[in-house]
Design a protein that fits this description.
Number of helices: 13
Structural class: mainly alpha
Helix content: 55-70%
Number of strands: 0
Largest sheet: none
Radius of gyration: 19 Å
């Protein structure tokens, strides 16, 4: 991984590990949709001035349908599912369940992506990961809401592949601002219509502000930059570190308990994801890495090149 990629990796891992704590605090005064609407609207406001001069008006004018699709699967759906799920699922456990994203990317790429030789035992990694999910579902107090969080992880996987396929040459900041802008309106209307009046406190305001400005605006921009730098499969490796941040924050701030189920499930998920996404070994014919030159495969998806933008099922280890 390049120095730029490593810096983006660490930054995004933190920004996407801390939101689960902030969501838990924000839910004390807002409904789930209200939390999502607040963070998305603030994120959009923060990025609009910067993205306006980088082609945002043209992007929304010419490709608004694609941006709206990305907004639906990468913002509206997963953000709402996570906020609803966190009504009963602890913040640290939520972060661990989101760590299944690389497993969803692996499965989805078999049908919608560049087909490449997988590492030996890749599917064993998938089985390990989802065994970890089953273990976590046995944690006291976790029920249907955990399935909502898992659905959010699947949405993130679809969003990563969509972004990489539809917007390979668009600046990450512009994409982020575009999808947040299109998502903010429907979410604000839904929050005002479906949920009761908010109970505003200092903690709620600060949590939503941090969610919108740092975790959403900053996090998405960094994540899309990471995809452009290292590719979507490698970018998804932030889920190896983000759960650690989420669990640590939940324990330190909210005094969330760590049970044997939590430890076992977390280890199974992270080990499974690492095994499933590791790079295949070299063959007698040479390296299994994709050629460095950029090209399109039979499905029209950019293959790996010097810019590392290919959907790589054999994402290289750092």
């Amino acid at each position: 991984m390049s120095r730029r990629g490593l810096l983006l990796f660490l930054t995004v891992a933190f920004l996407w590990g801390i939101p689960y704590l902030l969501i838990s605090v924000a839910l004390e005064g807002l409904g789930p949709v209200g939390v999502v609407a607040g963070r998305v609207a603030l994120g959009a406001v923060a990025l609009l001035p910067l993205a306006w001069r980088r082609g945002l008006p043209r992007l929304l004018r010419e490709r608004w349908r694609s941006v709206l699709l990305l907004a639906g699967v990468e913002v509206i759906a997963p953000f709402t599912l996570i906020a609803v799920g966190e009504r009963t699922v602890p913040s640290g456990l939520t972060g661990v369940l989101i760590a299944t994203e690389p497993l969803f990317i692996l499965a989805l790429s078999l049908f919608w992506g560049r087909r490449e030789r997988l590492a030996r035992g890749a599917w064993a990694g998938v089985v390990l990961g989802f065994l970890g999910v089953i273990v976590l579902l046995g944690v006291k107090g976790v029920g249907v809401d955990a399935v909502l969080v898992l659905s959010a992880a699947a949405c993130y996987a679809v969003g990563a592949l969509l972004m990489h396929r539809l917007f390979p040459g668009v600046p990450p900041l512009t994409i982020t601002a575009g999808m947040l802008t299109l998502a903010a309106g429907p979410l604000l209307v839904a929050a005002a219509t479906l949920e009761p009046a908010p109970q505003i406190t200092t903690g709620v305001v600060l949590s939503v502000a941090a969610l919108g400005l740092a975790c959403t605006a900053g996090g998405f921009t960094g994540f899309f930059a990471l995809i452009n730098t290292e590719g979507p499969a490698r970018a998804a490796f932030i889920t190896y570190l983000a759960p650690v941040v989420a669990v640590a924050a939940g324990v330190a701030v909210l005094a969330e308990p760590i049970t044997s189920h939590t430890i076992a499930g977390t280890l199974l998920i992270l080990t499974g994801a690492a095994v499933a996404a590791r790079r295949p070994g070299k063959t007698h014919g040479g390296s299994s890495s994709a050629p460095r030159r950029s090209r399109l495969d039979s499905r029209g998806i950019p293959a790996a090149g010097n810019e590392r933008t290919g959907v790589r099922m054999d994402a290289e280890r750092s």
